[in-house]
Amino acid sequence: MSNKQVLLVLFVVLMFGIIWLWAGDQAQSAKHPEVDFSISCVECHTEVTPQAVKDWRGSMHGKMNFGCYMCHGDGQVEFYPKPGSERCIACHSGQEVDFSKTPVKNCFDCHKGHTLKFHTGNE
Ligand code: HEC
Ligand code: HEC
Ligand code: HEC
Ligand code: HEC
């Protein structure tokens, strides 16, 4: 390979690396299993994932009935199985974190999604 070709290959590899890092930072819109969405998230998930609902109910969000959609989307147009922090700041403006200065990437690296309890990342 000529020097030019080597540089081109390196450039392409670098671009893929950047795109990959960028994509890793975005909350991914995915697909919820096909279900009957006329039933509420909480009602159905009390059966399918009881622990998730129990934890949420016991949290500040559950007590105020700030629902699953707040983080996971409506399940149809938008669905985020592993949500990011985008939606938190509207209500928690006092908690804004400059993630470029921390080793963590989003609120959930420190807070469990359902209990909201602080965790170390190992649990
Ligand atoms: C997905 C992003 C997000 C994260 C992470 C988040 N919240 Fe909250 N959250 C509250 C309120 C109200 C409380 C209870 C009062 C407080 O601690 O500020 C609370 C409490 C908390 C607590 C403290 C729990 C405790 O036991 O002390 C954490 C942690 C938290 N929220 C994290 C309204 C909201 C709203 C408004 C619709 C949104 C959106 C929201 N929260 C989105 C988020
Ligand atoms: C009629 C039942 C039903 C309804 C309604 C429902 N779900 Fe689900 N949901 C499921 C089933 C079944 C699964 C798969 C569970 C599993 O794999 O263990 C699932 C999985 C999930 C997961 C985990 C996906 C993953 O990849 O880890 C999330 C998050 C979720 N649902 C959120 C919601 C939200 C938010 C709503 C309301 C907008 C909702 N669900 C409504 C049945 C339902
Ligand atoms: C404050 C944001 C927030 C709310 C509100 C919330 N979740 Fe989650 N949920 C998360 C996060 C973050 C994860 C990803 C945890 C992980 O895998 O790192 C998650 C994961 C899940 C999962 C897959 C893992 C598991 O625990 O089974 C299910 C199922 C789920 N949520 C269901 C629900 C349901 C049902 C509700 C409403 C009762 C709900 N969530 C409300 C943030 C939230
Ligand atoms: C580096 C870890 C870390 C990150 C990232 C983080 N938090 Fe926290 N947060 C904590 C700790 C530690 C506490 C206090 C201990 C506790 O209450 O569990 C706390 C407490 C809170 C409280 C309760 C505050 C009060 O006055 O009682 C809220 C609300 C909150 N965080 C929201 C957020 C939101 C929203 C984000 C994302 C923008 C976020 N946190 C990101 C570690 C973190």
Q: Hetero groups bound?
A: heme C
Overall pLDDT score: 84
The biggest sheet, with number of strands, parallel, antiparallel or mixed sense and barrel status, is: none
Give the termini separation. Answer: 49 Å
How helix-rich are the residues, as a percent range?
25-40%
Could you state the oligomeric state of the chains shown?
single chain
Principal-axes shape call? extended
Number of helices: 5
User: Mind telling me the C-alpha Rg?
Assistant: 19 Å
- Class inferred from helices and paired strands: mainly alpha
Work out the strand percent.
Answer: under 5%
Q: How many beta-strand segments?
A: 0
Following the backbone from N to C, one meets helices and strands in this order, namely: HHHHH
Explain what this protein looks like in three dimensions.
This protein is mostly helical and 123 residues long. The chain has helices at 3-25, 41-48, 50-58, 60-63, 69-72. Helix 2 (41-48) packs across helix 3. The mean pLDDT is 84. Bound molecules: heme C (HEC) (4 copies). The site of one heme C has 14 residues, from loops.
List the helices and strands and how they pair.
Elements: H1 3-25, H2 41-48, H3 50-58, H4 60-63, H5 69-72
Helix pairs in contact: 2-3
Bound molecules: heme C (4 copies).
Residues 41-42, 45, 49, 52-53, 56, 61, 67-68, 70-72, 82-83, 108, 113-114 line the site of one heme C.
